[in-house]
Amino acid sequence: xxxxxxxxGGLVQPGGSLRLSCAASGVIFSIYDMAWYxxxxxxxxxxxxxxxxxxxxxxxxxxxxxxxxxxxxxxxxVYLQMNSLKPEDTGVYYCNAKKWPSSSWxxxxxxxxxx
Length: 115
Description:
This protein has 115 residues and is mainly beta. Helix content is 0%, strand content 54%. The protein has strands spanning 3-7, 10-12, 18-25, 33-39, 46-51, 57-59, 67-72, 77-82, 91-99, 102-105, 109-113. Strand 4 and strand 5 (46-51) form a beta hairpin.
């Protein structure tokens, strides 16, 4: 069972930056596909960015060019660098680890973009 602990959220002004981290334990991290999701108030959880065990990445159209997902297998950690933040990026961000048939979630970290 994967344990995931997310961190790095906070309050930031529009145009600012944040870096989220998600540390994994209990498994061989390098073989898992990792992803960040977010959930805004009153909305469904949506995929923000993903990175496979091989390092391939994909992004939601709304964050392309602004967000970067990366992983450090030596530190069992996945990151989400968020630049040029907008108010619509506000929400709870969750990291996810997948290796069929399992899927595990972190506890979520709040990101608020507001002036």
